[in-house]
UniProtKB/TrEMBL annotation:
Classification lineage: Bacteria, Pseudomonadati, Pseudomonadota, Alphaproteobacteria, Hyphomicrobiales
Keywords for this protein: Activator, Cytoplasm, DNA-binding, Phosphoprotein, Repressor, Transcription, Transcription regulation, Two-component regulatory system
GO MF, any single term: phosphorelay response regulator activity
Protein name: DNA-binding response regulator, OmpR family, contains REC and winged-helix (WHTH) domain
Any one Gene Ontology cellular component term annotated for this protein: cytosol
Length: 227
């Protein structure tokens, strides 16, 4: 997908890189990986990386060297992963231009949020996020992220239905409106009831923002902070 924000995972162990890579890819980022310093150096020199995620070892290590050589206005934003106890190393990394320092163990969801913030501050395309009462929906990744930390996927039909509601806040949509704009998909073949589709979407999003207007249809009332 052209134009996706690009994140490079550099000089990280497979144990650390794999869950981060999997999560960021599901969130819609382009991922590039390099396990060695020479390979990472070449990757960054080629350009196109928006955020570089690398390690901050007690003795500096390759991550610090990459930061020295490639940070700056024309380089990527660096997120350093450290043990959190080396205050001197953290301060040095920030002084050398690191945009953020994250402690271990890394929570992929937290890291993705920090990366998204860096993208926004650099004027890069933001991820398409919808914040509801009890969950956040990543529309590009079709992923629901609940406050509890649980995550689940939305089907293409559910995303189409949610986009329809988002495009018409506070407007009553009839069943015919919904069928025309967000028809049932194959997975709904056993039950094409609009009521059932709405109930499943509400349950998955854990939201009361989609109201049933008896005898008329359905209306999406954005949560308070949207209004």
């Amino acid at each position: 997908m052209a134009g996706r924000p690009c994140v490079a995972l550099l000089c990280l162990s497979d144990e650390a890189a794999l869950p981060i890579s999997d999560y960021l890819e599901r969130r819609g980022y382009e991922l590039r990986c390099a396990s060695g310093e020479w390979e990472a150096d070449a990757l960054l020199s080629a350009g196109g990386v928006d955020v570089a995620v690398t390690g901050l070892d007690d003795d500096g290590g390759p991550g610090m060297e990459l930061l020295r050589r490639h940070s700056g206005e024309t380089g990527p934003a660096f997120v350093m992963i450290g043990n959190g106890r080396d205050l001197i190393g953290k301060v040095l990394a920030l002084e050398l231009g690191a945009a953020d320092v994250v402690g271990e163990p890394v929570n992929p969801r937290e890291l993705a949020t920090r990366v998204g913030g860096l993208m926004a501050r650099r004027g890069k395309p933001a991820l398409d996020l919808v914040v509801l009462e009890n969950s956040t929906v990543d529309m590009k990744a079709a992923m629901v992220m609940h406050k509890s930390g649980h995550e689940e996927q939305l089907s293409p039909g559910q995303i189409a239905l949610l986009r329809l509601f988002l495009a018409h806040p506070h407007k009553v949509l009839t069943r015919d409106d919904i069928i025309a704009a967000a028809p049932a998909e194959n997975s709904d073949a056993y039950d094409r009831s609009i009521d059932s589709r709405i109930v499943r979407l509400r349950r998955k999003l854990d939201t009361e923002s989609i109201a049933t207007i008896r005898g008329a249809g359905y209306r999406f009332d954005p949560p308070g902070e949207w209004q």
